[in-house]
Amino acid sequence: MTKHIKKVSGLSRREVLVGSAAGAGLVIGYSVLPNAVDSASKAIAAGNWDHQQFLSMDADGKATVHVTKCEIGQHVGTALAQAVAEELEIDWNDVRVNYPESHAKWGLHITGGSWSVNWTFDRNSRIGASARIALIEAGSKMMKAMPANCYAKNSRVYTADGSKSVSYKEILSSNTIDRTFSEEEMKSIKLKSFGEYSIVGQSKQPLDLPAKLDGSAKYGIDVFVPNMVYAIPIQNPTRYGAIPKAVDESAAKKIDGYVGAYVNKEGFTRVNTGYVVAIGETYWAAEKAAKALKIDWDLGENKNISSDDIRDESIRLQKDPNAGFLWVLEGDTDKGMKNAANKHTAVYETAIAYHGCLEPMNGVAYEKDGIMHIHSGHQSFTFAVGNTAAALGVEQDKIVCHQYYAGGGFGRRTEPDLHVLVAQTCKHVGRPVKLIFSREQDMMFDFHRSPTYQVIEGGEEFGRMTAMNHDVVAGWSTKRAAPGFMPDSVDKKGKVDQFSTNGSDHWYDIPNHKVRSINNELSDRALPVGFLRAVAPSWTFWAVESYLDEMAKKAGRDPLAFRLDHLTAAGKNAGTPPNSVGGAHRLRNALLVAAGRAGYGVKPLGKNEGMGMACVSSQERGSPTWTACVAEVKVDPNSGEVEVKKITVSMDVGTAVNPDGVRKQIEGSALYGISLALYENLTMKNGSIEQGNFDTWTPMRLNQVPEIETVLIQNGHYPAGTGEPATTVVAPAIANAIDNAVGARVRSLPITPEKIKSAMREA
Amino acid sequence: MNLSVNGSNQVVDAPGDTKLLWVIREHLRLTGTKFGCGLGLCGACTVHMNGEAVRSCQIELSDAEGTQITTIEGLGANGHHPVQKAWAEIEVPQCGYCQSGQMMNAAAFLNSNSAPSEKEIVDAQQGNICRCITYNRIKTAIKRASEIMQGA
Ligand code: FES
Ligand code: FES
User: Fold this and answer.
1) Is the CB of B135 less than 8 angstroms away from the CB of A705?
2) How would you classify residue A497: left for phi > 0, otherwise alpha for psi between -120 and 50, otherwise beta?
3) Which residue among B56, B74, B92 closes a domain?
4) Which of B90, B98, B126 most suits a substitution to test ligand 2, by most atoms within 8 Å of the C-beta?
5) Fold adopted by A220-300+361-436
6) What mean pLDDT is predicted for residues A469-483?
7) What is the CA radius of gyration of chain B?
8) Is B134 in contact with A71 (Cβ distance < 8 A)?
9) Residues of B in contact with A212 (CB under 8 A)
10) What is the pLDDT of residue A8?
11) Residue A113: its pLDDT value, please?
12) Could you tell me which residues are beta bridge partners of residue A165?
């Protein structure tokens, strides 16, 4: 994705202002200034500068880091504040975070892709450093010393010999600071490097922890405004494509507190083709009304679609040589196949998946002074504001989104449907509205992970892969949600959804490698598909890493040795700084660490027990987090039940800004991946999702949790994203372990006892 | 209707079949108790009713009349119940949404069994879903809370 800061040319310059507003405290942020304005303080006092204020300090010397990200459980605010605090040389106890409301000045607002720390560590470090420099300049003047002879530490500025010092509080309460940094000056600030940190690299307690222990943390669902009504959407008969023809309110009208129904027959693409929302004075009344409203539906074009239809369409598309576009084209795979001693072709599949945020989708909307305010924990204000404005037919500056803690995100809260629904309902009823999905609606009206179908054909000779042909068939979420982000195919014949294909461009040396990415439009249409934690790498690595094991066995090689032989960091796999520096060697290292720590090939295993491995460069080639996993399983050959006894996950994170925070992310994302791999299944019938609540859709529970060991590899490279990669690595490791335990190769997710038993029969 | 919540008497004007969860959240504005499924399947709405852990989304207001209700806001003075202390020490919450229910469930369980075995912990707590899958830390924190309760 593009950088989230506007590039500006012409008669303005983009600079960092460090200045006092109203003579006290400090605000620090990027601004685009007309050349005529020469003072930070003046610009700040004028208040109308286009700026991104990432940090402010009050006259007491306390700092607030402004985080344009959503807390979805990853404690992102804490990590981003640590980056600022490190360079600001501030006492950690003086640091707070807040989450500003939406505004165009912030540019692209998104929490996802494991990008947050990876994209902003450098910027936040420099913001902290610029404020420190300004504080040292002001403090040194107070002590009648040269700035160059002073340093800052723990919220104080000291003279070089440490004989004199002045606190940030003293500086800020008695000085007007006026400092501008040009882009060049910002870039030239020398930042601390790995090994010099005192706040970065510490497992600071998450700043959002205390509020999450006593019930005081506020989520979107906890917002109340005066005169508010409650709204519950009605369950459409299909996931997408139905239109309400007529609504009979007669029964609903008898309910005490019934307010009305919002009926939309035109639809809005990012929500649905039509919908009905029941409205009541209380949740009780809205819930009763949602059941009492009788709706006559036009079922629409998807009324007969089932999961099997989507699968059949994928099979048909994959057989069509003209379908899809090329994502990778290296060498000549036909030639590579011809020369191979061993050949193998396999099909890998994944089922429809549901995000399953524990806090169902919800939001509160009200209008004030011509502005629609929407309160909800959300991962992308850019999408929320843009789509709500389009749906209401107003300018984007008439929509303001307010941020809250989110009870899970996993990519679901990048979708703008809730904002559109609640804003439209609010307009309709003319009162503030709190709209809440029931669990059943949340499950049905998810933007699900597409079911996928992949075929890998490959050849091997003398222990090396000579060719790999990989077809990836999936719904294309980016085409629906952000078509502008789709790059050209390698042969420039069309556009490819990289977020449905990433990962297939792996880091193994295979001289002849071709990846074809194919869009299953039936999946787009009937579901429609969205972005679920780790997105494409959770299916592409499922295929590639299962396949590597299969091919190693065919070639008579140990899967560990076979992988290592292909991770030589040659040519394009050498990597590039800062994100992928070291290339495939770092993946090789992560794999060796996981294998070593797990005791691969050494630890004694019982009957029907096995270990399996996988390694991934999730998420994108441009931002890989080198991750490996060894899974240890036990299979009951009679029932087909698999018990994951232990998983060992190693991750090269470069620099861990908050090591315990990283460990939590690895634990959570690995277990989320296991839950997807073993326990979660969604199916479509008659255009509708067949499951409805936690009884029919069954995510991992406490009794199913395996032992988990995480190993962080730190080498001082740039911080890598950690919230998703482990999700992608566990499923193939488990499948490979099952095969090693009982000789059953399962190629379809979720792995169920039935599939294991049937694979054992085939073996 | 009258009920006692976190030690104070409340008069609630709502239909008798209103679920206790929504009375707690909407009428009393105690939003630490969460809505997750509405069917008694996830535990996000867990509160104590006369000391027992119950799923408040399954209890009708008329059945709660006259009972003593405790929510996360009233669990320990200033958030200092042993379970809350243990949860802080082990840093259990990720998104945090399930955690009020997790702690309420664990607190009632430890009250009836202050030195549980691993198996007893698993059995007692598996009705509570955590979608961030913090289960390992939840288990550790319950053990730690049991130690704190025993003065360790
Ligand atoms: S909301 Fe009550 S158990 Fe899920
Ligand atoms: S901490 Fe997020 S659901 Fe448990």
Assistant:
1) yes
2) beta
3) B74
4) B98
5) Aldehyde Oxidoreductase; domain 4 (3.30.365)
6) 95
7) 15
8) no
9) 93, 96, 99
10) 33
11) 58
12) A158
